[in-house]
Amino acid sequence: MHEQPSPTHQPLYQQVYRMLLDRLASGDWSPGELLPSETALAQLYGVSQGTIRKALDTMAAERLVVRHQGRGTEVAKHDSERSLFQFWHLYDEDGSRRIPSSKVLECVRTTARAGEARQLNLRRGAPVVRIRRCRYIDGRARIIERITLPAERFPGIESHGKALPNTLYALYQKQYRVTIQTAIEKLRAVKADQNDAESLGIEPTTPLLEIERVALDLEDEPVELRVSRCETNQIHYKNILD
Amino acid sequence: MHEQPSPTHQPLYQQVYRMLLDRLASGDWSPGELLPSETALAQLYGVSQGTIRKALDTMAAERLVVRHQGRGTEVAKHDSERSLFQFWHLYDEDGSRRIPSSKVLECVRTTARAGEARQLNLRRGAPVVRIRRCRYIDGRARIIERITLPAERFPGIESHGKALPNTLYALYQKQYRVTIQTAIEKLRAVKADQNDAESLGIEPTTPLLEIERVALDLEDEPVELRVSRCETNQIHYKNILD
DNA sequence: CAGTGGTCTAGACCACCGC
DNA sequence: CGGTGGTCTAGACCACTGG
Fold this sequence. Notes:
Two copies of one chain form a homodimer.
Chain A: H1 12-25, H2 38-45, H3 49-61, E1 65-68, E2 72-75, H4 80-87, E3 90-92, E4 101-111, H5 114-120, E5 127-137, E6 140-150, H6 168-176, E7 182-191, H7 194-200, E8 207-216, E9 222-230, E10 235-241
Antiparallel strand pairs in A: 1-2, 3-10, 4-5, 5-6, 6-9, 7-8, 8-9
Chain A binds a DNA duplex through residues 1-2, 5, 11-13, 37-39, 47-51, 53-54, 56, 67-73.
């Protein structure tokens, strides 16, 4: 199934990748479900199995999909495992890491501030849900978080109130069909303000690591803004460059 | 060229990858040089071109090698481009980044402290070279760095004194045949001490972003320890999770 | 133009899973 | 056991590079 050369020629396996991605984003298959087999997809799209394989391998590398020899290719699902390995960079001094517990301090519907609107690609004053929570590692408050969500993508999420689950990305995916695929983080060192100091039980002016994260869905639309402030005496942010 | 199944069976393309990596590490080919063509390598190792391709694609993904259609496969070379894209995460507020200029404050041969020895996999008191330098963005001092090198891997490097070049990884590669392949960074927020404050022209106790980096060579041996302290009012550390 | 890597195909055999 | 993905091969054609 070759194609004639043309000005906009894209390799077949990239076209297939695009088509599969679109079907994923549109919810044709649900997280945890098995895709059709490689041979079935090859027939469906009229290409060879090798071409399908190359597209699926790319998707596996991007964690859109998980391959299981002998079983099939599964649509990636958000659980605490994935949150840990893809989206969690805070480590204890001993090198271990785990998702901390959380206490929701506030969860309200309100309107976007200028900065939030810009980062979430909303108009100013658009409805948003703002969550503030404190996170605990080894039973001690270490992180204070402020999360902003576009209300239209998460209708009624504020009704969870303080009972919001700890692993939010799984909730986004299961309840709102929003899959977090990428995140862009900006890190800075800042002084704790009065609020931070009280919540974390530290002196004001203690240096904190501020992590500002914009999370994107399958179509690279921003769907969550999260600002975390961390006390880094016992923990650190680890990044591997390769 | 199939192989009989055995308890320690590894796929052919991984065996080829290993062999090519070993030859790279031992300096059989120099950075910037072209490898033999895929067909030549296939003959050499007695496997098909597809198997060679899979090994080389892996190496390309790890930036060990750069592929050029119509020209050949080149051994990756360290230059300011690569330093920027693989090892530089500090961005201006406008989203741009460039390698800052540097002024060497100190460059001396001495002995490893306990922490340095541990991180560089040396015995305590082993000879090391310690470099301190200040880095400038837009003409303003923003980063203070302390670099520790195992003296045995970089004989005589201290003789460069304050004339050390700005892009050190290129120097390591060209002059000492040490290629930096990976780096592990730990980030924390700290208070500026008296020294930091003077060098950066800020108040003591200003919060700084501390980046502690251990750089590894092709064989995953630690070869450089670098602690950078950054003033993050105008710049931030950017990380993409995907 | 000859030679390189990039794409695509077809088919063989293997390792693994679930029934 | 049949069906899945994983490995490996052989060969065709294309796009690009350099002389």
